[in-house]
From TrEMBL:
This is Helix-turn-helix domain-containing protein. SUPFAM superfamilies: Putative DNA-binding domain (SSF46955). Residues 11-59 form the Helix-turn-helix domain. GO terms for molecular function: DNA binding. It comes from the Bacteria.
Amino acid sequence: MQVINIEAATYTVEEVAELLGLSRGNAYRAVRAGEIPAKRIGRRWVVPRSAFHAWLEDCQLPEAV
């Protein structure tokens, strides 16, 4: 049986907040609202790295005014 390091496969919400320049609270709000791809494991939220990077690539930036 192969053991997978789940920590290497996921980000914490705090790490995502830091990567995106968000406050911890705003990152949790975005996760709960489904705006950032995340999974709940027990009471803990994890953000799969592959899903996060795919989501980030697909994000539409607002057009300059």
